[in-house]
């Protein structure tokens, strides 16, 4: 958003040579094969403000302080005539670059259409502020800052749908897990639920490890004051699980999305990450996330549920 606002400011301020310099910076940052043609003595620019070698495109830019359709039509004709005279074998597409933020003037569109009919062997395109912005959006931050001439204040996007509600629980688990017995027997969980949902290898180990201490989650929510909160959090897990399972068929990817639901997508300390898997194990055991095997389902060894 900040870069977009800065770009719009530039489009309002730049004209003539300053606009051409901006166009050159942008295209050189985007395309290694772009040639930023400058005027040189009596040669001028030979009808070109830029050439794209691989695509055989010639760019002619025009950014007056005040828009005059008649002057712009004359400019297009003049640049095209010079380009055909001096660079006929160097391009097959003529691109008119302008700074009109409102779009293309109807008479300019008509002029380009007329030139297309007059020169059927050439292609004619226009490049206004919308297309220039689309090019800007393809740049990485360092290049965008150079093109826009400013620092872009970007912070890592960290989000977690459940973070606000789960922050006290994660703190509780970080504090209590050290005192819990890491070797205590697992609560009775049918391993066929893991099989039924295709959870294997590391993800399976992480869930089983979390199950050893999932009773801490139950203890945290014990009592009438937190019962409603527990139900609300469980409902949040159920709804989010149904959303991500549609987009991520691999159960390991689903668990990864659920982990981000708890923690956000930023880096967290290992203790916090382990606490998150205790939370996931708890809601897995409650069947708020992933499905229980249906009655009569046989696991991979043919043992009936």
Automatic annotation (TrEMBL):
Q: Where is the ABC-three component systems C-terminal domain?
A: 164-290
Q: What is this protein called?
A: ABC-three component systems C-terminal domain-containing protein
Protein species of origin: Streptomyces nanshensis
């Amino acid at each position: 958003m900040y870069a977009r606002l800065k770009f719009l400011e530039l489009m309002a301020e730049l004209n003539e040579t300053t606009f051409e310099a901006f166009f050159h910076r942008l295209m050189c940052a985007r395309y290694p094969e772009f040639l930023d043609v400058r005027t040189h003595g009596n040669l001028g620019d030979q009808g070109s403000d830029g050439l794209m070698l691989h695509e055989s495109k010639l760019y002619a830019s025009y950014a007056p302080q005040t828009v005059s359709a008649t002057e712009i039509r004359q400019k297009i004709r003049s640049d095209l005539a010079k380009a055909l005279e001096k660079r006929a074998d160097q391009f097959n597409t003529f691109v008119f670059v302008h700074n009109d933020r409102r779009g293309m003037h109807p008479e300019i569109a008509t002029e380009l259409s007329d030139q297309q009919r007059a020169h059927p062997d050439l292609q004619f395109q226009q490049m206004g502020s919308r297309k220039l912005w689309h090019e800007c959006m393809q740049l990485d931050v360092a290049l965008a800052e150079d093109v826009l001439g400013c620092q872009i204040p970007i912070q890592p996007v960290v989000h977690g749908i459940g973070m606000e509600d789960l922050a006290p629980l994660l703190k509780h688990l970080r504090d209590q897990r050290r005192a819990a017995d890491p070797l205590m027997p697992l609560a009775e969980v049918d391993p066929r639920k893991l099989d039924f949902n295709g959870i294997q290898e590391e993800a399976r180990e992480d869930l089983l490890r979390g199950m050893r201490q999932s009773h801490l989650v139950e203890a945290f929510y014990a009592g009438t004051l937190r019962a409603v909160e527990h139900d609300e959090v469980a409902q949040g897990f159920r709804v989010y699980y149904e959303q991500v399972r549609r987009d991520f068929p691999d159960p390991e990817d689903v668990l990864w999305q659920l982990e981000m639901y708890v923690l956000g997508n930023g880096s967290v300390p290992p203790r916090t990450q382990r606490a998150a898997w205790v939370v996931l194990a708890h809601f897995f055991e409650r069947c708020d996330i992933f499905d229980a095997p249906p009655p009569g389902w046989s696991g991979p060894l043919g043992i009936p549920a």
